[in-house]
Amino acid sequence: MADRTDEDIDGFFTTARVSGREEAVLLGEASFRDYLYEHDHESLAPWRGMTYEEFTAARQDNPFLQQLLADWNALYDEEFVGVTSDGVVQEALYTLPPEGSADPALVGAARRLVDALDDTGRAAAMHALDARQWRAWSNPEFVFHRVGIRLEDHSDDVVEHVHELLRAALSPEGYQQVREAMELNGFLGELVDLPSIMNERSYWFSFFGTPSIDEPWGFQIFGHHLALNFLTVGGREVIAPVFIGAEPALSDDARRPIFDTREKTAVTLASSLNPEQRAKAVVYPSVLDPTMPEGRLHPADERHVAGAFRDNRVVPYEGIPVTELDRRQRALLREIVEDFHLLLASPERAATMGEYDAHLDETWFSWYGATDGSEPIYFRVHSPVILAELDNHAGVWLSNTLPARFHVHSTLRHPNGNDYGRALLAQWRARRDR
For residue range 239-275, what is the model confidence (pLDDT) as tens digits? Predict the structure, then answer.
């Protein structure tokens, strides 16, 4: 097992994850179990037996983490604009149907959850539709903003009502992916014997607005390696931003890696590129390419650009325009994009994919790493209506100092102001006020 003591930034993040390397980073045949710390290793033992609040208090004494949280708070304090490619928000990209309302089954599940909460839980969980707490989500295992109710502090009945709402709001396969992320977090807690810090209920839940057939409302759930924001408005449903990850991304032979299909389809697409296409699509031939500019690699985010508190980030297009891909390659890319939208129920997924199709000629695909599946990868699909990315990461609770397939982060954004359904909500209000 590799030890990273000499490369520690703060006991969790390492200099190796942000240091350029001339040599390739190879995946090899190693299992995540080859990178397990000994039970009493200094990376694990100090936290054992702590509650999530005690762990948070201990972690936030660290200068690196203090600076990270200060940076996040500064971003949180900004007025919402939305992710853009050049700092200018494009208008009229997202469309409401002429009329529409929320699914009655969804509303029923939401109301049953509200009724299941006691007065204290209800006061904590309910926020105004435009509350700034929408943007307070984050994905680490320590607590930053305490928004809503913490599932592990509530009864089995309340937790089951949360899952009932998730099943009503998401597609069946989308719910399974969310449940898998939660279960993998629990598996990690068991693996490192820190179940009070990482478990299947290490998540915060909130409502925004009041569940209604006719009025817009939404909900948010976030915690370690899972964050999703759901809004229903005027017959449309938006699930963005989304952050889903896992370490490890699989539990022995019990399941495939959480993004197995997405990653394999992406490698198929990347390996199909001809030399001219590859020269454009492959922005960096390695995920730790030493020619990356200063700041491109972040100790916590590594390569992904659309995670927590990045609501207003300017992300220029890079890679190859989709207009230069052939028909089969475009079909593969569309499969990847649809997989990113897996959480959406089928009718809404079709509408969202229609928006993707409408802007196909403005879509870009970029790739970091080898295109044959032999190395860790980062890739991004980016257009006026989607920013979707997947990144293989180094270890946090495992000891691998270099990126590996068994630690993965994946994000999804609706650029140009429709994260949290904001653009569609503005349309709904303009229509109502006419």
Answer: 999 999 999 998 676 667 899 999 999 999 999 999 9
As a whole number, the mean pLDDT across the chain is: 94
Decide if 1 is inside a domain. yes
Is residue 36 domain-resident? yes
Q: Is the pLDDT of residue 419 over 80?
A: yes
Q: What phi, psi does 420 have (nearest 5°)?
A: 60, 15
Find the distance separating the first CA and the last CA of the chain, reported in whole Å: 65
Give the model's pLDDT for residue 420.
98
Q: What does 340-406 look like in DSSP terms, one character per residue?
A: HTTTS-HHHHHHHHHHHHHTGGG-EEEEES-SSSSS--EEEEEETTEEEEEEEE--SSS--SS-EEE
Based on the structure, what is the number of domains in the chain?
1
Q: Among 346, 400, 350, 359, which residue's Cα sits nearest to residue 376?
A: 400
Asked if residue 164 belongs to a domain, the reply is no
pLDDT tens string 170-180: 999 999 999 99
Query: DSSP string of 265-279?
Result: HHHHHHHT--HHHHH
The parent domain of residue 313 ranges over 1-99+228-434
**C-alpha torsion 107→110→111→117, nearest 10:** 180
CA–CA dist 17, 300 (Å, integer): 9
In a domain, 304, yes or no: yes
